Amino acid sequence: MQTWADRFPDLYAPGHWPWGELDVQFGTEQPPDELISNAHVVGRTDGGIVVCANDLGWRFLPGGTREPDETVDQLVERELLEEAGARVTGPLIWLGGHRADHRRPAPYRPHLPHPVSYWANYVVDVVVDAKPTNPPDGEQITEVLVLPPDEAIEYLDAREDNDGVMGNLVRLAQAMRLV
């Protein structure tokens, strides 16, 4: 029987994210909540999947870094509002996450788990009914689109800015019949 890792070898391959000095490994086992430092979402809405671009030209699924004392639900709700002008309308559905082994001697922010953290990925129903809030200390979003899943994958894969991770997350969500 074929596993998810067999079907999505690029997503499951061990990797290194040099910008964060992180060695990463994707898996579908859900980690303890206290180890989740970041989350991205496959936001389902009428017409498809929510995707974003920022002023640096990066394309991505909405998400970001957890704030002090923030629950995962609060993290997802905040990041969707900041990056996509979207509201959560359903429960978070676990998709998978990257275990990140940090090479830096200290965490990116003092409240974040270290030396191991997880970049979690969820599927969630959303409504896009506002503009991104673009807080001054966050990414400056220049584009929010709702695209059918195959077009969202094409959009996310069109640039070499996320190593194919974001498109593969949508592919995995499709294969799991979550989108």
Q: Which fold does the CATH topology refer to? A: Nucleoside Triphosphate Pyrophosphohydrolase
DSSP summary, beta strand count = 10
Number of helices: 5
Structural class: alpha+beta
Rg of Cα set: 15 Å
- From the N-terminal CA to the C-terminal CA, the straight-line distance is 23 Å
Strand composition percent: 35-45%
Brief digest:
The protein is an alpha+beta fold. It is 23% helix and 36% strand.
What does this structure look like?
It is a single chain. The relative contact order is 0.25. The mean pLDDT is 96. A hairpin with a 4-residue loop joins β4 and β5. This protein has 179 residues and is an alpha+beta fold. The chain contains 5 helices and 10 strands, in the order ααββββββαββββαα. It has one domain: Nucleoside Triphosphate Pyrophosphohydrolase (Alpha-Beta Complex), CATH 3.90.79.10. α4 runs antiparallel to α5. Strands 1, 2, 3, 4, 5, 6, 7, 8, 9 and 10 form a 10-stranded mixed β-sheet that branches.
